[in-house]
Amino acid sequence: MKSIESLNKKIVSCKKCPRLAVYIRDIAKNKVRRFKDEKYYGKPLSGFGDVNAKLLIVGLAPAAHGGNRTGRMFTGDSSGDWVAKVMHKHGFASIPTSQNRDDGLILKNAYITAVLRCAPPQNKPTRDEMENCFVYLEQEKEILQNVTTVLCLGKIAYDITCKLFSVKPQKFGHNKLFEYDSIKILTSYHPSKQNTQTGRLTWKQWSAVFAKAKKLVK
Predict the structure, then answer these.
(1) Residue 119 maps to which CATH number?
(2) What's the rounded Cα separation, in Å, for the pair 33 and 23?
(3) Which domain holds residue 159?
(4) Beta-carbon contacts of residue 59 (< 8 Å; ≥ 6 apart)
(5) 3: left (phi over 0), alpha (psi -120 to 50) or beta
(6) What global pTM score does this model have?
(7) How big is the CA angle at 164 (ends 97 and 149), to the nearest 5 degrees?
(8) CA-based max dimension of the chain
(9) Strand 176-179 and strand 184-188: pairing?
(10) How far apart are the first and last CA of the chain?
(11) What share of the chain is helix, strand, coil (3-state, %, to 5)?
């Protein structure tokens, strides 16, 4: 079994997907105006959090100007704001914001990862790219041996998590709990702007998911 440190080093140096490797480097070089004075991370992202956690949170992929800029998943963008705020409210995070890798955010009883470790163009990874990254999820599963519940942010995260635990996917929906012999899987809409700004995902709905997660991992 790898340590989380050696696995994360392997992830950061990964170049298995040529399209993604080129894209994240280009984004880091050709920055958006609002971040023109910042140095982008521009490399694949490892997961982060408490290695003894009972709760594993699986997202889709780093954001081009969020995680790909800051070097940490769900950091430096609106999705990261929603994640940090709700995790702090329910006791999973030390602070209610997630702005950069050195902001002091510490996760408690939770570990955050994603289906894909590189930001994909238009947030649309290919099947082959997801397959290439799947091995990293498998290795994280081996290392994070205390996980009893997985919170999946979006349908792709749910489908890949079902594959990870060799269980049959059921109909995806918000705040659904699927209990299998090997794992409990909780699902949520992803806190993307597409969902939060349209009202598809309200703060009340979002908070309810984490309230449920907290009960599951007590």
Answers:
(1) 3.40.470.10
(2) 18
(3) 4-216
(4) 73, 74, 79, 112, 113, 114, 115, 153, 154, 157, 190
(5) beta
(6) 0.96
(7) 50
(8) 50
(9) antiparallel
(10) 27
(11) 40, 15, 45
